[in-house]
Design brief:
281 residues, alpha/beta, 2-enoyl-CoA Hydratase, Chain A, domain 1, two-stranded parallel sheet, globular
């Protein structure tokens, strides 16, 4: 079997726009109908299948991950009472759904960690859901108005079990991370920089150009050096995720089955509202 070819899969993922430069830099742009995406069951499964496909393409030398619009990801499709699938009021159906989510949830994290090409996150704005997908990149750049939070677990009555319970304590320390997740705290870009979550904070229009600048600098190293860097540096992180994610997802599922369907989710806040709240706090 031949490895995946870019032309075969580049249009296979509706919420991930792809383009690859002649020097092998793959740009992945997260979106929904060309605008800001909100997390959903379909996107969850799509992303779970994305990482192994792009990581398995040897013609891709480095990956840049970014989003569309003012924010990367700040809401889930269950907000304001909207649910993107039916039957969740039936206990058997809820169990089946969560077993399925457990299977794909593991792939989202573990297949991302298996990618061997260096990865650069070019965060275009607030990310309050699944920020571990960005923080697991090797270089993390962020626009000045970016904020980071975990607003899809405790505020929704869920245990943080899909990877954030590993990455936040790893990057900011156990006590700081527990407070952050329990309280729904929002960290602005400068706080994230000070805590070591981000490497650089830039004006929004400079984030992607800087990502390409760093990408080409990285690719000046010998190809096998570039290819072997991420596997070596991420080996211990993979072990941590292997130990924690399956158990965490099952705990999250139990909490969800006990809690859902609950009250409608709150209306999502705009990026400017999140930034203003953070600065005021």
């Amino acid at each position: 079997m031949r490895p995946p070819a870019f032309e075969d899969y580049k249009s296979s993922y509706p919420h991930w726009r792809m383009e690859r430069s002649e020097d092998g830099i793959l740009l992945l742009q997260f979106h929904k109908d060309g605008g800001e995406a909100d997390w959903s069951y379909d996107i969850h499964h799509e992303t779970a299948q994305l990482w192994s496909r792009v990581g398995g393409d040897a013609e891709t030398k480095l990956i840049i991950v970014t989003g569309t619009g003012e924010a990367f990801l700040r809401r889930e499709a269950t907000y304001a009472g909207v649910v993107d699938r039916e039957g969740m009021d039936d206990a058997r159906q809820r169990a089946v759904e969560w077993i399925d989510a457990h299977s794909y949830g593991k792939r989202i994290e573990m297949d991302l960690l298996e990618i061997e090409q260096p990865m650069i996150a070019a965060i275009n704005g607030p990310c309050t859901i699944h920020s571990e997908q960005l923080l697991l990149c090797d270089v993390v750049l962020a626009a000045e108005h970016t904020v980071i939070a975990d607003h899809t677990h405790m505020p929704f009555g869920l245990v943080p079990g899909d990877g954030v319970q590993v990455i936040f304590p790893l990057l900011m320390g156990l006590n700081r991370a527990r407070y952050f997740m329990l309280t729904g705290e929002v960290l602005d870009a400068q706080q994230c920089l000070d805590l070591g979550l981000f490497n650089e904070v830039l004006p929004a229009d400079q984030v992607l150009p800087r990502a390409y600048e760093l990408a080409r600098k990285i690719l000046e190293a010998p190809p096998m050096t570039v290819r072997l860097f991420r596997p070596v540096l991420m080996q211990q992180v993979k072990r941590m995720f292997l130990d924690a994610v399956s158990h965490g997802l099952m705990a999250e599922a139990l909490a969800a089955v006990a809690h859902f369907p609950g009250e409608p989710m709150p209306e999502v806040k705009t990026p400017s509202e999140l930034v203003a709240e953070t600065r005021a706090g």
